[in-house]
Protein backbone atom coordinates (compact mmCIF):
# COMPACT_ATOMS: atom_id res chain seq x y z
CA UNK A 1 0.00 0.00 0.00
CA UNK A 2 2.74 2.43 0.81
CA UNK A 3 4.45 1.63 -2.48
CA UNK A 4 1.40 2.66 -4.49
CA UNK A 5 1.07 5.92 -2.56
CA UNK A 6 4.71 6.66 -3.23
CA UNK A 7 4.35 6.03 -6.95
CA UNK A 8 1.13 8.07 -7.16
CA UNK A 9 2.76 11.07 -5.48
CA UNK A 10 5.85 10.83 -7.62
CA UNK A 11 3.83 10.56 -10.83
CA UNK A 12 1.78 13.64 -9.83
CA UNK A 13 4.98 15.58 -9.22
CA UNK A 14 6.49 14.34 -12.46
CA UNK A 15 3.33 15.24 -14.39
CA UNK A 16 3.35 18.72 -12.84
CA UNK A 17 6.93 19.24 -14.00
CA UNK A 18 6.40 17.85 -17.49
CA UNK A 19 2.97 19.31 -18.23
CA UNK A 20 3.22 22.94 -19.35
CA UNK A 21 1.49 25.30 -17.02
CA UNK A 22 -0.80 27.97 -18.32
CA UNK A 23 0.58 31.39 -17.55
CA UNK A 24 -1.54 34.25 -18.72
CA UNK A 25 0.41 37.25 -19.96
CA UNK A 26 -1.04 40.67 -20.34
CA UNK A 27 -0.97 41.11 -24.11
CA UNK A 28 -2.69 44.50 -24.17
CA UNK A 29 -0.57 47.30 -25.52
CA UNK A 30 0.52 50.07 -23.20
CA UNK A 31 -1.96 52.91 -23.54
CA UNK A 32 0.03 55.40 -21.46
CA UNK A 33 0.83 58.62 -23.27
CA UNK A 34 3.34 61.21 -22.14
CA UNK A 35 2.62 64.90 -22.02
CA UNK A 36 3.99 67.04 -24.79
CA UNK A 37 7.48 68.44 -24.16
CA UNK A 38 6.29 71.80 -25.39
CA UNK A 39 3.61 73.88 -23.69
CA UNK A 40 2.67 77.14 -25.32
CA UNK A 41 1.73 79.59 -22.56
CA UNK A 42 1.29 82.48 -24.99
CA UNK A 43 -1.32 83.42 -27.55
CA UNK A 44 1.20 82.88 -30.37
CA UNK A 45 0.39 80.14 -32.86
CA UNK A 46 3.39 78.18 -34.12
CA UNK A 47 3.73 76.31 -37.39
CA UNK A 48 4.49 72.58 -37.34
CA UNK A 49 8.07 73.29 -38.37
CA UNK A 50 8.53 75.71 -35.46
CA UNK A 51 7.01 73.24 -33.02
CA UNK A 52 9.31 70.47 -34.29
CA UNK A 53 12.31 72.74 -33.85
CA UNK A 54 11.25 73.70 -30.32
CA UNK A 55 10.70 70.08 -29.29
CA UNK A 56 14.32 69.27 -30.17
CA UNK A 57 15.27 70.92 -26.88
CA UNK A 58 17.49 73.60 -25.46
CA UNK A 59 20.74 72.22 -26.88
CA UNK A 60 19.53 72.36 -30.49
CA UNK A 61 21.25 75.16 -32.38
CA UNK A 62 19.01 76.68 -35.01
CA UNK A 63 21.15 78.10 -37.78
CA UNK A 64 20.71 81.71 -38.76
CA UNK A 65 20.69 83.07 -42.27
CA UNK A 66 24.26 83.26 -43.70
CA UNK A 67 23.73 86.95 -44.50
CA UNK A 68 23.46 87.55 -40.74
CA UNK A 69 26.92 86.07 -40.16
CA UNK A 70 28.45 88.03 -43.05
CA UNK A 71 26.99 91.33 -41.82
CA UNK A 72 28.09 90.53 -38.27
CA UNK A 73 31.63 89.77 -39.47
CA UNK A 74 31.79 93.05 -41.43
CA UNK A 75 30.60 95.00 -38.39
CA UNK A 76 33.17 93.40 -36.07
CA UNK A 77 35.96 93.94 -38.60
CA UNK A 78 35.09 97.62 -38.98
CA UNK A 79 35.00 98.05 -35.19
CA UNK A 80 38.43 96.42 -34.90
CA UNK A 81 39.84 98.67 -37.65
CA UNK A 82 38.63 101.78 -35.79
CA UNK A 83 40.94 100.90 -32.86
CA UNK A 84 44.01 101.04 -35.13
CA UNK A 85 45.96 104.21 -35.80
CA UNK A 86 44.55 106.42 -38.53
CA UNK A 87 47.56 105.81 -40.80
CA UNK A 88 46.96 102.03 -40.90
CA UNK A 89 43.14 102.04 -41.00
CA UNK A 90 42.83 102.58 -44.78
CA UNK A 91 45.25 99.73 -45.49
CA UNK A 92 43.05 97.27 -43.63
CA UNK A 93 39.82 98.70 -45.03
CA UNK A 94 41.10 98.03 -48.55
CA UNK A 95 41.86 94.40 -47.61
CA UNK A 96 38.37 93.94 -46.17
CA UNK A 97 35.87 92.38 -48.62
CA UNK A 98 33.00 94.56 -49.71
CA UNK A 99 29.56 94.11 -48.27
CA UNK A 100 27.53 91.75 -50.53
CA UNK A 101 24.58 93.19 -52.41
CA UNK A 102 21.14 92.45 -51.02
CA UNK A 103 19.49 89.82 -53.15
Gross morphology: rod-shaped
Intertermini distance: 106 Å
Q: Percentage of helical residues? A: 40-55%
The amount of beta strand, in percent, is under 5%
The gyration radius over C-alpha positions equals 38 Å
What structural class do you assign from the helix and strand content? mainly alpha
Mean pLDDT: 76
- Count of runs of 4 or more consecutive helical residues: 4
Largest sheet: none
Helix/strand order: HHHH
Unreliable spans: none
Q: Number of DSSP strands?
A: 0
Describe the structure.
By secondary structure, the protein is mostly helical. The protein has helices spanning 2-18, 48-55, 66-82, 86-95. The model has no long low-confidence stretch (mean pLDDT 76).
In short:
This protein is mostly helical.
